[in-house]
User: What shape does this take?
Amino acid sequence: MNRDRLAGLAVIAGAAMVAVIGARDYAGGWNDGSRLATVESVVDRGTLAIDDSIFVAVPSGGPSPYPPDDADLGAHGTRDKLRIGDHFYSDKTPVPSLLIAAVYAGAKSSLGLDARRDPRRFCYWMTLASSGLAFIVAVASVFGFAGALGLAGTPRAVLTASFAAATIAASYARHVNQHVLLLAVAAALLFVLTPASDRPRRLLVAGALAGLGYSIDPLAGPLLFAAAGGLVVFRARRASPIAWFAAGALPWIALHHALNYRIGGSFAPNAVPEYLAWPGSPFDVSNMSGILHHGPVDFFVYAAALLFGKRGFLFHDLPLLLMLPAAVALARAPIRERAELLAIGVWCLGTWLSYALVSNNYSGACVSIRWFVPLLAAGYYVLAVFLREHPERLRDLVLLSVFGALIGALAWWKGPWTTRLLPLYWPIVAAALVTWWIVGRLPPSPPKLQNHPRM
Assistant: This one.
């Protein structure tokens, strides 16, 4: 077995260990409670309505699917729900819930897993089968596209380890959520599209991933599909490759919209204010996502805070700060991935500005900005290209990853659903920035290891 294959197996084994150890055996908040309510209801009652789910009508005498010290969740269950007609439905996109429900159905028939009888076991295995598996796929995909881009040996290993340990990705593997699912889809899509190929099977898989991504997140998903589709069109400029990509994507897109329309008579029922107008609802037009909230000045301040504020995405994922010099350097370089980097930039910029425009709650009770977790895949693709072109900047990645690992460990310890600032957050960020500035003034050392030769 060659060294690269051994390294890949080690990466997957490490990610699997993090997923197995980290998966929690309870729903930690409204978000995962809402999605698990759909999973339970579809399999155990054959309906998308969640009124009778243990995550909505929490059993008073039996085992609870929520933490025993959370009185609000224990009394009221998830509040991430829509009142449509006479029933409650989850406000989460339905396709991922159906995929998790398929896993539950298999475990129920073969292993006797039952959500109501043993909610702890149910929560653990659904978390591991969804978010845990997604984390493993994301880490393996980063390792894969780093190699396809020309990184080998130490740079490839450092980049992958940085992604796994020095970002908030592992934190989002601890509970069921759509954000780490889209992260896995985006990372896998970048791997499949690298290098450029017009083989039908590869394009069919790429289309399926892009279509699945479309169904996972109401803003970042369609933007990912558009960016990937635009890249395929630009590369191919022929009907056949585009048709293969579309054939993979369209079934997922059609299923997504069909389910949404069945649930709420709308292609986006979670954006209908009337569905949130039920007694005790924490959401209304003043704080729901999906409508305009800002004037010009407020929009600029809010958009900047999403990246650099106390919950800022870049400061919670410190290695991504290296993208700032990377963007400048790569914009001037004659590199073969220019179209890919442009598509990535469009996706990231579109996702950031879209959520800045139609939200005002910093993505709710969570670590950093949960909507941007999938963008980690794009960021590390850019860093892989940057390290290939500038191997001397590996030192910067290592430095930022050391401090990033501190924030990543704190985020993993707290889990994704928290309303509090991570302990020592600002001191860690300040120390990282100061140290990076000092080290940046030192002369670069020549790289000892070379990447794969460029084609």
